[in-house]
Amino acid sequence: MTDKSPVFEIENLHASVAGIEILKGVDLAVYPGEVHALMGPNGSGKSTLANVLLGNPAYKVTSGSIKYKGNDITALAPDERARDGLFLGFQYPQEIPGVKVLNFMQTAMSRRKGFDLSLLEVRMGMIEAMQLLEMKQEFANRHLNTGYSGGEKKRNEILQMALLDPDVAILDETDSGLDIDALRIVSHGIEKIQTQRPEMASVIITHYQRILDYLRPDKVHVLVDGRIVASGDAELSERLDSQGFESFQTLDMK
Ligand code: ADP
Ligand code: MG
């Protein structure tokens, strides 16, 4: 792949949930190595877009296309997308009682790599990634997302991201519910992963400027009522931080 072709490209995407149209024509092109921020008020469709990208069957694409590495993936199942390097960190991660983080990661990493990894190999990888994220080593033996604090859930997401080596990481409000210290650790973790993998692209979905101070997006988009109403550089997110989304909502009405 040359630098000239986007790693994924969305064109005129319309999508609905429970029969209601939520995305009303979204265009977005993300190139390898780019950091995009997707901002917008509650209910504007940010998580819907993330779910559509990952292929959640509850979300129906009604028109438009999603191309990933040059191929239309609209009909591709979520696990096939994940295997091909698309990673989504959920806003509300699911609890999976009875499944240990270590075993979950063994399955996920083996699928991504295309061959079976031993528990020892997975544990070695986890030790390194957990140090990066300043996580306690006994975390590997806990049950997935069960009884986690908000900060632990988010760190676990970033841990998965570090281990799965995605080509595109979509992080849906990874910063929400984090205190200042956890935000710093998680942001630095993402930053280190980005530095280690300069070709990885990321889409950071957030309400707040704080995480963007760490992650310095190349491009910022504002989603209002299922449409991208403004795109710009990091300056746009700073303006949003001081002015709020109001001005963009009026812009959209015109
Ligand atoms: P955001 O992440 O920007 O806050 P969402 O994408 O979560 O927005 O939601 C956009 C709209 O879609 C909201 O009106 C929400 O109620 C609706 N919606 C999202 N997911 C579902 C779902 N699974 N079932 C029904 N409605 C949904
Ligand atoms: Mg959301």
Structure description:
There is one protein chain. It contains nine helices and ten strands. It is an alpha/beta fold and 254 residues long. The chain has a six-stranded mixed beta sheet with strand order 6-7-8-3-9-10, sandwiched between helices. Strands 2-1-4-5 form a four-stranded antiparallel beta sheet. Helix 3 crosses helix 4 and helix 5 runs parallel beside helix 6. The model has no long low-confidence stretch (mean pLDDT 88). The site of magnesium ion (MG) has 5 residues, from helix 1.
Which small compounds were modeled alongside the protein?
A: adenosine-5'-diphosphate, magnesium ion
Strand order of the largest sheet: 6-7-8-3-9-10
Shape annotation: globular
Low-pLDDT runs? none
Q: What does the main sheet amount to?
A: 6 strands, mixed
Determine the structural class based on helices, strands and strand pairing: alpha/beta
Per DSSP E runs of 2 or more residues, the count of β-strands stands at 10
- Average pLDDT, rounded to a whole number, is 88
- Count of DSSP H/I helices: 9
Tell me the helix content: 25-40%
Give the terminus-to-terminus CA distance.
40 Å
Please tell me how large the radius of gyration is: 18 Å
